[in-house]
Amino acid sequence: MTDLATELRALNGARDQHIPAEMRQVMDRAALELAESGQVTRARTVGERAPGFTLPSATGATVALEDLLAEGPVVLTFYRGAWCPYCNLALRALQRHHTGITARGARLVAVSPQIPDESLTLTEKHSLAFDVLSDLGSDTAKQYGLAFDLPDDLAAAYGKLGFDLQRVNDGHPRTLPMPATYVIARDGVIHWAFVDTDYTARAEPADIITALDNLGETR
Questions:
Q1: What CA–CA distance (Å, rounded) separates 33 from 167?
Q2: What residue spans of 39-79 are helical by DSSP H?
Q3: With the CA atoms of 79, 82, 85 and 86 taken in that order, what torsion angle do they form, in degrees rounded to the nearest 10?
Q4: Residue 128: CB partners within 8 Å, gap ≥ 6?
């Protein structure tokens, strides 16, 4: 099985062939500015208590972190939306490892700022067996220190590419989460964390599995 990092690099190479150079420059400049902002150091990390949330799922259910933790550890991943090819690739990789995650007694949930209808379309398209939750307004992402606002030129570039963030994010087109994945132990404390300002980077599913194996008595 190809690791996710290899798939992401291949996708990045394809992006360079299909997106105009001036748009790539805008994307790369915005990525550099976000990296230099120091926001990644303000994100929740290992040893901290995971902020609670109650969010709607793609299928209309309401999912609360407290309820999930009552049953076992939680793998919580934040992604930008169904419009993001890197996110789709990462979610498909997590689906391939879903059995391994649940076999360790954990529950996998994915969170984005998009509306439930978009999440449902994504779930059906990729046959996702885990909950996909809607964080409208990115309030949960803000609690985790992950939310940031797109600069004007990047928002304009996304618009030219046909990404209707005004609609899919329910009137919050500028706010997105940094890519992040957390393994949260049953006591609500973050046991393992992946956070990156680079939107082309994602947590490797094999590392998530290892983190679950290392939970030990906190599981």
A1: 26
A2: 65-69
A3: 10
A4: 91, 95, 110, 122
**Does residue 30 carry a pLDDT above 60?**
yes
* 190-219 per-position pLDDT tens digit: 999 999 999 999 999 999 999 999 996 444
Which residue's structure tokens are 């939310």?
147
Using alpha carbons, select from 199, 206, 203, 214 the residue that is nearest to residue 11: 199
**Integer CA distances (angstroms), 215 to 109, 140, 199, in order:** 18, 24, 28
Residue 202 near residue 90, CB atoms below 8 Å? yes
SS3 82: coil
38: containing domain: 4-218
Domain of 36, CATH number, reads 3.40.30.10
Cα–Cα distance for residue pair 126/143, rounded to 1 Å: 28
Q: How many domains does the chain have?
A: 1
The C-alpha atoms of residue 190 and residue 105 are separated, in whole angstroms, by: 16
Give the C-alpha separation, 141 to 188, whole Å: 17
Phi and psi, residue 107, nearest 5°:
-115, 130
